[in-house]
Every structure is written in structure tokens, then in C-alpha cells.
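The protein record quoted for completeness.
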Amino acid sequence: MATELTLGFSPCPNDTFMFYPLVHDLVDTGNLSYRERLEDVETLNQLALKGELDVSKVSYHALGHIRDDYVLLRSGSALGRGCGPLLVACDKISPAELRGKTIAVPGRYTTALLLLRLYDPSLDNFIIMPFNEIMDAVLNGNVDAGLIIHESRFTYHGFGLKKLLDLGEWWEEETGLPIPLGGIVARRSLGAAIIAEVERALKAGVEYARTHPGEAIRYTGEHAQEMAPEVCAAHIALYVNDFSTDLGDEGILGISCLLQRAERAGIIPLSSVPLFSSHPETPDEELTVSDQER
């Protein structure tokens, strides 16, 4: 009998696109089966913090708080270039002018908020709300600015909002590295063998989705019915890339750099546990954040 694992991911197009093959048995899942739970990314962060999911998408910010209990998988990440969170407002002002003013953010443990805090630690008057409510809050004057993610980066122009800061551009100029937004984690207590099986199936699923995009897009559309098809397609094109198939050395360096900076800023706790489980192709590899260039 197959072992059932809980699998958390968001209804955002990049996640449903990548997980479609896995949850519809289009790839070999071995002796494992998956019971999916679709939630917004901040809810997934909170569930992982409570240890309630076996495998889940989480923000890389949240990863910094759960490293003792979860390992990072090498496939399924949202990581790349030109895909960072945007700070927007009704009027074009300097981000420094927002000190002391209200900024709507999409969750306490989102990477978007982590990046904003790293960019300017003096910005601290945050109001947490669902990501899809942020633009309306800015337009209605309920907050002075908003930190937007996901498909909002494709639509904010149409609402007359002004971009104050692209945190992805800032990160790339600051580090020269791709920006890590969200990744897939597995509970350490599952054991190395099961984690390796999850990782193998996940990578096969991402590869299947990328080579059979028409099939995955139908499933994606079911969960993005309020999103214009062209926005959905742009979302997938931006957030599903080679790093989604495998983080590679550059992706791992970007993640390690982000976590190191967050540790130094006191935003996440220090940790010496390996970031990854042993990989079947490199069984002795046990990377920690401290192993990477600072």
C-alpha cells in the first residue's frame, strides 16, 4: 500500500503548473501518493511552521525559521531574475519617504517582506493582508504603499499605481545572484529514503509540465479563473524556469546568500543544520548556509 503524504502548494499558476503531473499520476511516484492542499503562500508558511505538512511550498523567508524540521528540495522553486516583489504607491515618491508610513505586505514570513527589511531596516510600519487585497488597499488610501507579488506585477499599471522599487532589481544589483522567492521543503522526519523519492518524483513532474505545457495549463486555468489567460501565461513563463527543474550551484548560492543576510540582520535564527538532505547523486553533500560565500 502506498504511503500518503500531505502536499501543500498555492493556487498560483506556477505552482499548479509544476505540481499538475505529480498529483495526477503522470509521473512515477513509487510507493508514495500525495494529498494536495492548496493555500496561499503565507498560509502554507504558517502550516509548515506548525509542522502540519509533509511536503510544501514555502517562502524562503519561512525556510529560515523551519530548517531544524524541514529540508529543502532541489526542484519546484520559484527563483530567477527579473521576478522580484514590487513596492507601489499612488504617487511616485522615494522609498525613504515611507519611513513611519503604512505599507501593506503579503505576509509576515514572505520573502517579499524579508527583502524589504533587508533593503531598508527603518521601514517597519507593516500591515499584513492577503496579497490579492494589497492593490485595492493602496488605491483606497487605507495604506500609503503596498508590496505586491505574483500576478500583481503584471497588472498594477492598469490601476494607475506607480512603482517605487523593484526588490528583484535591487537584489540582483546588490549580489549578482538570482532572487530566491519560494521553494519546496520536506519534513526531515520522513527519512532520507522517502525524501529522495519525493525529490525524484517532483523533478520528473516539473520536467513533464515543461515538456507538456498544454496539459498543465488546463489544470492551472481551473485554479486561476479570475486571471486573464495572458497574465496566467506570463506568470508561468516568469516563475517556471531552469531553476525550477534544479536549483544548480547558482540557485543554491542565491538561497544561501539570502539566508546569511537574514541571519546577520537578526530576522531569522542562526542554524547549523544541513539545508539539504543527502542527494542520491552526491551522497556526501551536506550543505549548510555557512558553507557558502558571504
Summary: The first helix runs from residue 13 to 23.
